[in-house]
Task: structure prediction
Amino acid sequence: MSQYQHIKQEAFEANMQLPKLGLVLFTFGNVSAADRSLNAFAIKPSGVPYHQLSTEEMVVVDFDGNVIEGDLRPSSDTKTHAVLYKNWSNIGGIVHTHSTYATAWAQSQRDIPIYGTTHADHLTVDIPCAAPMNNEMIKGNYEHETGYQIINCLKEKGLSYIDIEMILVGNHAPFTWAKTAAKAVYNSAVLESVAKMALLTEQINPNAVKLKEALIKKHYDRKHGPDSYYGQ
Result:
């Protein structure tokens, strides 16, 4: 058995969650799962419909995006995943989708405002939207540069990838990450739900105001703070 079998299985199972959660249409998305001890990650093959996937079809690549194992071409977004894994040592899973509501916010080039407690349960700031890529980056190694587009956005906003596990790429679509591929998928589902709620909020009340700081702190801390009490 391949020494990469566990990350291929993890990547397969996570990818199969995307259509089940309504986060992808046709082949519009991908998940990867990494093993830091092997300096490698497994990712969905490019352009293969989800119902045709299997564990064995997952492609294993290194953190420079070079194929290590697999007969199919890896996702066209592989180099973006590789850049994030190489620069962010505490993540083990990455998801990219074109889910409807999150992508609509990305196309609008807007951060998603923190309007409610669902948002605050997961992070304490607006969900950031990276500025559209400049022409020189587009003309260069596009997918590679997308990784730096994400990294640079968080740096410019003074945000940590450990605290903020989701982003919108301006004019493009969302990316999420986490310590595991399964948690990264969870973050994608949360992002899509929050994006939908924020849109509806602005439609119902165009003058809606952001959640007050006391509620942001309360809801985030009860799940993630030192004295958290949510869950078993």
